[in-house]
Every structure is written in structure tokens, then in C-alpha cells.
């Protein structure tokens, strides 16, 4: 059994991690920390977990106790993993960080987008970006894994085959993304209230969202060079789900895009390339670690439209983190991640 | 008082027309027809209208009775207005058609997208496209007004100033649109059930939606030439609202876009150009005839992003129809359309 | 024109008051106060009001400025009206309080339920409970009007004719109530987040809700004696609306309940008694000041079931406040309150 | 492996059965029938099941093929099981019927509520009501199991301990129930459209719902005698979940109700009696077979309020059916039913 610690378990990614790990036959949660909820039983905060975690309580963060775990997940605001990672790595823990702390390889870019100096730049070289469909082998041997953000996961999986094949105009890519409200986390903000966020839809952060540099970094890797990207996130009136609608101009019109995508993801158990002409709905992946993708060329024109949907809390966060754990600990990639989405 | 008849009043545009006209001081509904509900009281079908239309019942369509009206609205499936329009025009009625029957100026294009021959091509020359912000003067003198579709309204109002100024690359425009479920009407389709459409988001008709030729026709007019447009509609889990996210490449970087939009819409009481940096939410126009628009150039790059929101049932249908009525009958453009959106 | 001041205008009842008063031909908002938002334009906080209140900003509360108003509405947390009312009444203002400060006639009961001493017990004798359907004449002459709570409005209007007729067992009344989330106000609480409150339903405060003593006080008046009431409020996954399902045992089986209710509310323009056998949906009153009521005796048994629906922000708060204003200032009771609910 | 056939698999209970059985290690779906969808692949209709049932298609109902199964589930409208059951039982199949066909023990009552004669009265004697918490032993030996309705499950589990202990006034019980829209099934009715059912709440069938006789039959068994019940179902704007709010008058005030409920359900793995003072939300059971119950006596008065929540599609239908299968085939009662509800 993998002995697991979770730092910062009171948010939505934390409670989803708990739920996934409860059903995972090779891992057990030994410790979950929360500064604000220390001493409170997990099921008091999360009544959905009654009968599952009745004996587990939140404890104040304690590096010594965490160091006794095989694996520590960070489900924290940015900056926390910077602080704790060096000591825990020294003690031999494997770290899987769901925050943004180690996603960007360039510490200056991190500082620019997060408004303070990077707290552990010495670890950037060995941090592995935890997108299994791109980095599977590196993840297997990593000590420090940075789980991708939710938008970056949906966008990169959707664009990767196209850019990697070198058949798109990389200078003008567009990612129009729609996210459920859980992407904003469990913070008590007025904008996330049911009365404000339901029955409405709006774009936000059009001038620059923190996921933009992360997506660009990934797409550069796919394209093998610079890319131009416009990324517009939208808040949609639903709990879960990301729908990325991706636009690019093809420069090679003879390539069979459907075959390209199907071949590219053949060995990836969590990416489902739909039949030509399909329109994936976010509900078809809700509660699962699956990404469903459909590729279109409307009226056989120059523009490719890729539709890519994920559950932002699973493939976009906690599910992807467990997928990384499986790879890192030599387990079947899909272990504990066989949840089937409900139709409704 | 304008004596009004409504053909096909049992759908969502019909019931919204009824509601708007009840509050309009210069019009009164004399007649509302429905083949399926003939004999049923309006308030039996629409209990929200109790106390307002207690004396009105649906009647079977009857050209003679309709001909006695000053103005007939069509809130019907396509094809019905084709059939009835010639006779009613002959009898001196003014017609405002909320269906697609007279929106496209080219009868062959109509036939291609609607799957049958156009039923009244002889009227195409005089049919006026009812987008007041473009066609105000023509509407004032029209006998037959074709109210624009919901997507076309949001997209055209958002793109118009940009294309009209000739500062965008017209060959590659993108309109990524999100609509509430009421856009699908009151038909009992499985896909519109709460259990299927809520808590989910998906694109549809990526390969070609009936509003595509209508939008293209309008944008050609704005641009004074051919345009290339990719239009992707999405179904969002809410009742009302359209959010159009529009992308274009600017070729003249010196132009002040904010000023351009503000000036363009100065005389248009229903278009509200938001301050630079804004993100309009669909709920800020819900229940009103307002279109709110914000213009962005993310990170001062080449791509312009225009956000345009309307209530699909009002500015995208029944409200716009009343706006046309006001213009046509020499009334204040805003008469009866002063509804203020609720915050929630 | 009635010169209106609003104290505490940043919540949902405040923004709804603003919206209603903008459409009211005999009142104008001269002043709106907010400690936290002083200096901010109303339309910055509430973009739905753009074009309507462009010139109005929140100001810090200032008794002198408020005293210059004919009428001051309190849309504040409890306790604030206690503090300001004495001075404003002295200066000749009429006060309409949407908070709970003057709803209970017994200062000790107030202290028990609100956890501190009543702050202005000397005003209790003259405070008039603002339920027009019960207190119409008293409201016309009141200086200080306490607008009823949302649950109390729906429950009292539903029970009143039955209890007043003396044909129910008053010892065991049940009010099972379901409310939209806006009843919890605009406070940023985790429980009101879309992610927590949508797609779920739960009871709360079963052991005692602050509206219980207010309802009991009203029902005692209706019954002319003591009543036994069980009141269970529920949070329903929607923005607006209260559905009260009321249960009582009839002791006089011959009485025609339908006729009783219809006669009782004959002179009340905002109460709509539905035909026998009806089931009012909350959406049929959304956005209006209407209360719709249906009376049932399932299978002709002893139990009466009354269904009573209102929009909690209108008939349950701001609409009722305007109704009180109309009565108090000698205007038509319905002035500015003719909004017709949308079907959807 | 239990060889399973499903009759009528295109509705919501059918697709949930498929999902549960896919994760069940001792059962496999050999056959699924649908008259309307015969020949269509299961994943074409239900894209959420891609990768799980890729090889399964709907077939026309065929008694011979069904007879080759160990177990046949009926997920059909009423009447279908009447027709097929006799032959399948003869051939040695076990039948678990999710429809209403065998829930009522009295064929005349069935005829009264379902509007036609009972189609297989000869089987009523041996049909076992599939509420495991009441009938566990009988289910183990049954050939024909009638899975309870969704409302009856929530109400019976909530009332049972109280009535069985003989400490309530059985003559006047009230069940005020709120259901998600999936309770209405996958039929394309206008009333179940998102535009009609979301953002609203209403009661329905106050004068008599088909689940009333079923609940009464169960409560009579619990009470050991006649009961008087008022049952009011409501449609709540959410996909899944039933919240039953139950009211009864206690006649023995000394009994510790909390202890009574906890003891009663000690051996029932799917009933979770919450700590005193709790308010279960429907979301805490969504996606699981759990029923959570809380018992209140507001202000220590005579009225007991029991709150009982289930997922109508699982404990109220398909989950309960699998629970019955487990018992009937000698498996662990919880096998394949360990899904943990998500917090959101």
C-alpha cells in the first residue's frame, strides 16, 4: 500500500482526491492536513464521505508526519508547495503537486503571473509536468510531479496531435474554453454564488489568465517552436466540466485528421477520440478521468475545429493526479480510475 | 391602438410577444392563432399570464380574421409565413415575421438550408431585414419585416463596427456562440430535457447551422465584400441568453476600437458598449431588449475579441420584433421595451 | 414625486428596490447608502442597472441626508433600523423597514431569536406590520412599517382565510416551505455557492428558524387565539421563489374552501386564487409581486393542503415594500408593480 | 457470473442499471431489449458508456433469448412485465421488476390506479416487495421481486422505525416529498424541459399519485394496522434526488427517537442515520445507493419531523434492483454498490 498524505484537503480537489483514493486498492490516506480545520473530522466537513473516512480528521500541517508518507499530494493555493517541497523531497517523499507551483519551467514567467518570486527555483529542473499523454515515461521516474491545470489539460490534449504533425498555422491558434464553476474552487466569493453564477454565462480574464503561459509552454513543445495563442475562458452555469473549442488553420489539406487523432491517442486509455461528426457533451465525462475529443473541418474549409471535454476536477485535477501516482508507482495507469460517467 | 394578430402563439417567442404587448400602450392583441390549441384560453396554457389575458383564447388560423389586423406577427415554424404572407399583404396588413422565411435574400440559399423550395420568392425584394441598428430607415417603411435570428443578432451587432471600418482580416472570422436552451424552442425533444441539458455544455451543428448563411449575408453587407466565417454554436445549461465570443485579426493597429464601437452605437438605444476591460454576463441583459458589447485586444496583440450578449427571446426574437413594430408605426423605438434586467 | 432614500442597498433586496423604483412614476431614489461601497457607482456594482442609474453612487450613511427624504427604506441586516429609526421619525421621515427589526411585537421574543436586546422597543407600539392583505388600512397611516419576511408572507397568505374562518384544528398546523437561494442574501457563504447549492435540496433550521415566531404571531391574529405550528424551511436549487405547502385538519367539512379563499382575496390585487385542482409553480410569479394560491382536500379527506407561491425578493421583500409605499402615500396599490412574470 | 437480460433499457433506470452492472464483478449483461432502438448500439444512444459497452446493441424483445438468462430486469412502463413474467418464470428465470407491475398486492387497487385490469394476478402471491431493509429474507428466496418506487422507498425507510415502534398517531401522517426531474423519466414531455422545470418548484398530483397506495401498503405493514397518510409530491429543479420530509405526532414522549432509528438500521448497510440535529442534503447521496435519515422533534414538541434522502435512480430504482440481485444470488448485499457520492 502506498502511504499517502494530503496537504490542504478542504477544497474541491482535496475532497475528490479523498474520494478517489478511498476506492483505490493500492493506496491509503494516512494523513490530511488543514490549518483552518485541524481537529475536525473529515466527515463533518464532507458528509458525502460518511462511512468511508469516519476515522480520519484534519491535522495541522507537520513536515515530520508528512515525511513519513510515501507520497504527498499538494491540493493547496500556490506558494505552499514551494515551501514544503524541498524538505519532503530530502526525506525521500514523492510529491504530486496539484497547484501551479511547478507547472511553469521558467521562474521569471511564474513570478510575472503569480506576483511574487518563485519559492523553489532549484527544483524546476527535475519537476515533471504530469500530463501522462505527453510525459508518460518521465512521470514514471519523477520525484516531483506538477499536475497540469484544468484548462491546459483540455487545450493541450485537443491541440497536440495537430500541432505535433506540423499541419497547422501555429501563429494564430484560438482556444475558446467554457468551465463549470467548481474551477473557481471552494472559496466563498460572491461571483461563485448560485444566485450570481447560475442562469448566466460570461467570459473573464480575456486580457490574460494564469493558465495562458502554461498552455503556451505545452503547445510550444508540441509544435517544436513558437506559437501564437488567444485563450478566452468563460464561466458556464454548471458545477463541473470544461469544454474547449479550439480553432486553427490547416496548411496541409490532404491529411486525414480523424486518423491522425485516433492513431495519436491509441495507447492513451483516458483519451477517447469520437467518430467523425461527433459533438462531445461535458456530461459524458463527468465523474470520470476521460477526455473526449472530436475533430471537425466545417464545410471542408481551412479551419479545423477541435472539441475537447474533460471533468475539470478529475482529468483536470485529482483524477490526473491519481493517474500520475499510478505511473510513478508502477501500477496499471487506470487503477482506481474506472468510474463510468453517468448519463445524467 | 395598433390592432395586432399573432400567428402561432404557443411557443416561447409567442408567449414573450404576448407579455411585451400587454405592457405596450399603443398595441393590443386582438387575435392569437394556434392549430393545436384552438379553443383553449391563453392563461390555461400560460398561467403566468393570468390576470392579463383572461379573455383571450387561441383560435384556428383564419386569414380573414388576421386580415382585419393592422399588424400580424408570425411566431411560427418556417414555411407558414410563406403561405400566408401574400394574401395578408394584399389585404393591407403589415407583417413582422419572427421565423426564418424572409431572412435570406437568396431563394436558392434558403432552399439549400431549409430543404424545400422557397414559398414566396416574389416577396424577397421588398422584405426588410429587421435589424434596426443596421436598417432603421428601411424598417420604417416596410410592409414585410424579417426579424433576425438570435445568433445572427448577437454576432452581427458584435462584428458590424469592426467590419464596416475595414480594419479586420475578413477572410477568417470566428464566432463561438453559447446559447441557453430556450433557443431550441418549446418542442418536446429529449435533448432539451432538464436531465439532458442541465449540468452539461456541448457544441452542435459544427458542420453547418441554419444561422450561418444569415450571419454571412449580414457580415458581407457590413464588410462591403466577401467574408470567411467559422460559426460554432454551443448549448449552455441555462434558460435564456446568448454569449457570442467573436475573433478577428486587426490589420490596422492604430485605430481606437473602444471609440469606434462607442461612436457607432451612439444612436442605438438598445446597444450598450461597455467600458474597456469589461466582460458582459448574459444575466445583465436577461428579460430586456439590450445588447451589451465589450471589445478586447488581449495583450495588445493582433487578435480582437468582441463579447456580445443578448437575451435570445427578446433582442434575439420578440423584443426585436416589437422594436421593429415601433419603428414601423412611427412610435418611439423604445416604447414598451424599457424592462430593466434583474441582477439575479 | 416621493423622495426616497435607501439604507444598505448592496444586497438583493436593495438592488430589487432600485429596479422597481426606477420604473415607478411617483418615486425617485435620491440617496442610497452603503458603508462598504461608499463612493462606488451603483452601476459598477450592478451592471444590470447601466443606463438607468448611471448618475447614482453609494454614499456613507448620513442621518442628515436621509432625513431630507420623504421615505427611507431599510434593506439592512437586523439592528440597523433600531439605531436610525428614532431620529429619522423625529425628523418626519416615513420608514419602511425590510429587515426583521420591527416585525415582532414582543421585544422579549425579538431578543430571544436575534440574540440581543431590542434596540428601539419604544417604537413597537406604532410599528405596523406591512402585510397589506391583512393591514391595508393601518399601513395607510403608518409612520413606521415593518415589511414581513419572505416565508411569513407565503405562509400567512396561505393560511389566513382558513384560520380566520375558524374551520381548522389550529393546534397542529404544518408549513413545509421551499425557498430559492436568494433568500440567503448576497453574503459570500460556502453554503450558497453554486457548487454546493445547485443539484441538491435540504431542510435547514428544523429546530427553529427566525421566521417561526413571526409566522406564529400572524397566525394567532388570523385565528383569534393560540396556534400550534411546525415550520420546516428547505433550500431549493433555484435563484428565486418560495413554495409553501401548508397542512391543516378541517373540522367543518361542509364549508366550500374554494369559495372561501376566492371571497377572502377579492379585493387584494396581488393574490390570485387559482381554480380548484391547480398546482402553482414558483416560476408563474417570478419577477412579480403576485402570490398564487391553490386549495386542495386530497381525496376529500380531513386534511387541507394549501399551496402558496411568491417571489421571495418581490412579494417577499422589495415588491411588498413598494406596495406599502403606495398605500402609505395614497397611490394606487399596484402602481409600479404591474410586472408580468415570464413563462420561463 | 450471473447472466443478465434487461427489458426496456433506453430509459434512465435502464442506463443506470447498465452502468452499475458494468462495475459488478459477478454479473454481466448478455442482452438488452428495446422495441424502438433495436439494432442500435448501446453507446450510440448513451455516449457516456463508450469504452464499456462497445459491443452491446439493443435487440427486439424475444422471450426465448431472455429465457436463456439467469436474471431478467424489467425497466419498462407498467404492463410489460405482466405480459412477459409468466413465461420467463416458467423457463426458470429470476425476475426483478423495476416497474409498478407487482408492487401492489391487491389487484383491484392496481386496476384502480393504473386504469386497466392487472395482467398477471396469479403471480401476486409470490411477488416479493424488494425493500431489503424490510424484506431481506424473503428477497433471498424470491423468483419475482418488485422493486419499490422512488417516493415509497424514501418515505417507508423514514417512517418505518417510528410506526413499527407504535409511538406515533398513525391516523394523520404527512409525507411532503421533493423529487428531481429524472423521476419523470426520459419521455419528451414539455413539463420536463429545462426551460419549464428549472428555476421553478411546484407540487403535483396533490389529489392522488400512483405511489400513494404503495406507500400506504408499506406503512400499514410497519404499523400493523390502518394508517392515514397525506402524500404531496413536488418537482424540484434538479436532475436527481428525493427529499422526503415526514411529519407525525408522537404519543409516547419518553422514547429516545435517535436511538430507536440507529438501532433499527444497525444491520442495514445502505441506511445511514445521521447524528441528532442533522439536515441531510440530497447531494450527499447522489450517485450512491445510500439513504440518509435524520430525526427531529422541533422545540421538543409533539411533532416528529423525519428527513429522508435518496438518489431516486439508485436507491429509488436501479441501485435497489442490484441490491435485490445480490441478496437473491447469495452475494454480499453491497457488492458493486460501493459508489461514494461526490460532494459536488
TrEMBL record, chains A, B, C, D:
Where is this protein found? Cytoplasm
Which N-terminal stretch is annotated as signal sequence? none
Residue ranges annotated for the Semialdehyde dehydrogenase NAD-binding domain, each copy included: 3-142
Catalysed reaction(s) here are: N-acetyl-L-glutamate 5-semialdehyde + phosphate + NADP(+) = N-acetyl-L-glutamyl 5-phosphate + NADPH + H(+)
Please list the residues that make up the active site: 150
> Main location per UniProt?
cytoplasm
Single GO MF annotation: N-acetyl-gamma-glutamyl-phosphate reductase activity
**The enzyme's E.C. designation:** 1.2.1.38
Q: In which pathway does it act?
A: Amino-acid biosynthesis; L-arginine biosynthesis; N(2)-acetyl-L-ornithine from L-glutamate: step 3/4
List, alphabetically, the SMART domains matched: Semialdhyde_dh (SM00859)
Q: Which UniProt keywords apply?
A: Amino-acid biosynthesis, Arginine biosynthesis, Cytoplasm, NADP, Oxidoreductase
Quote the Pfam families the UniProt record gives.
Semialdhyde_dh, Semialdhyde_dhC_1
Q: Which Gene3D superfamilies match?
A: Dihydrodipicolinate Reductase, domain 2 (3.30.360.10), NAD(P)-binding Rossmann-like Domain (3.40.50.720)
- What SUPFAM superfamilies does the record tag this protein with? Glyceraldehyde-3-phosphate dehydrogenase-like, C-terminal domain, NAD(P)-binding Rossmann-fold domains
Task: Cite a GO CC annotation.
Answer: cytoplasm
Q: Name one GO biological process term.
A: L-arginine biosynthetic process
Family affiliation: Belongs to the NAGSA dehydrogenase family. Type 1 subfamily.
Among PANTHER family, the record links this protein to:
N-ACETYL-GAMMA-GLUTAMYL-PHOSPHATE REDUCTASE, CHLOROPLASTIC-RELATED, N-ACETYL-GAMMA-GLUTAMYL-PHOSPHATE REDUCTASE, CHLOROPLASTIC-RELATED-RELATED
Q: What does this protein do?
A: Catalyzes the NADPH-dependent reduction of N-acetyl-5-glutamyl phosphate to yield N-acetyl-L-glutamate 5-semialdehyde.
> What NCBIfam families is this protein classified in?
argC
Q: What is this protein called?
A: N-acetyl-gamma-glutamyl-phosphate reductase
Q: Where does this protein come from, organism-wise?
A: Ventosimonas gracilis
Q: Which gene encodes it?
A: argC
